[in-house]
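Look at a sample.

——
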Amino acid sequence: MDLNTITDVVRRPPDRPGAQWREGDAWLAGGTWLFSDQQPDLRRLVDLTALGWDTLVPSDAGLEIGATCTIRELYALAPPDDWSAASLFATSCEAFLASFKVWNSATVGGNICMSLPAGPMITMTVALEATYTLWAADGSERTVDAADFVTGDHENVLTPGEILRRIDIPVRALRKRHAHRRFTLTHLGRSTQFMIGTRSPDGDDLLLTITAGTTRPIRFAFDAVPDAEALQQRIDALPEDVWFDDPNGSPDHRRHLAKHFAEEIRTELVAGDRR
């Protein structure tokens, strides 16, 4: 879609582009959402792809993902053999309701910053205990837990001019065992519910992440795997307004799915201990 309110596109911003931020600006990376709808409040686009940020940097500490990394690049990553949870990269990329053309343009950071309930890059990074590095307009930076970034449907903690610079996934999370469940109304539809559970290779812990059915990511951390009743009670204790309501599912339907999938995930990961 043509954006007829845009009067300027900054093709070569400075390395720290926030200092030039002004009202009516938008950061441009893949642009798959920006150009999909009218943007009447925007006057200028600042192109982040010209900054040449590293896209994927594996190391002994884990994986650094540049915010402008495309979905296609993440999908094509060949991780180290001991990163058992890295298969969630492909799983999450395939959760997009998008064509290959969108994969080639859409970015990991863009999907996170859109902060929609069904954003699969949000699911993946929250489940893998990632942190986000944010650059503020005044030149400072801060680090936030992925689980704390999205605060509601299309809402997050970014302040005006602040930018998501990179995502860091720790190696301990990448080495965890995992199980996931995803529900859609149609085979290639938007996620109604997307849940991931992880466990340390030699531990008794359980980390359960619930997204798509909730307005913000929910992550439960257990030092020891709870029994079925305790897990159901934790889900039932969530506030009513956390459940998302749209044509893909009612809050009651999504709560039911969360409890059903949570038990399946719990059972699958516990069964893995006996193999």
User: Anything to note?
Assistant: The mean pLDDT is 93. The CA atoms of residues 97 and 187 lie 10 Å apart. The chain is about 25% helix and 25% strand. The two ends are 53 Å apart (CA to CA).
